[in-house]
Task: structure prediction
Amino acid sequence: MTAQIEYVRLAQTLPPRLLKFFARYPPSLKSVTSQQEVATSVQTSVNTSSASHDGAESTMNIAVSPSDSPNPFKPHKHPETGRWHDPVFSLRRQADLVKLARANGVEELLPYTLKGSDEGRRRREDHGLRVKGTGIGQRVKGKAWERTMKSRLGERKQAMLGMPAMVQQWKQLGHGRGWKKFPR
Result:
């Protein structure tokens, strides 16, 4: 009972966008109560009036599991036509929902998505940064000014070390008369 009260309080603090999402796609039972063992299917009874030979109505029990409703973040195949349907939410909208859920502390209630924190961490561990030149023995190409910077700084350092002698020579020659080392 206290868990239900907590969920009601949590739902009251959620932004309307998340409330609308969870109303349309309720979280699976496993993610809501991860500590307890819960059956994955919920029994609902559906009254169907069938034209049986005795004229009585029959009641049919249908098991509804979280897998019956497709993940709105993934494309799914229509059971009758066999055609693929796009995800309900684009990758950009998925990322927005994940950020919003993460900010409100309910990210684990969302269905699986590539934009989730767990998936991002897993991909970073599997593939690394994937930036050219960050591996062992690799060099980043860089721009021309970045590639030549080391040699230019070396030349500049040598020029600065030789500057006192150059100033002395300038003064001896008479402030530019006969000077051959004008800078470019």
User: Anything to note?
Assistant: Confidence is low (pLDDT under 50) at residues 34-67.
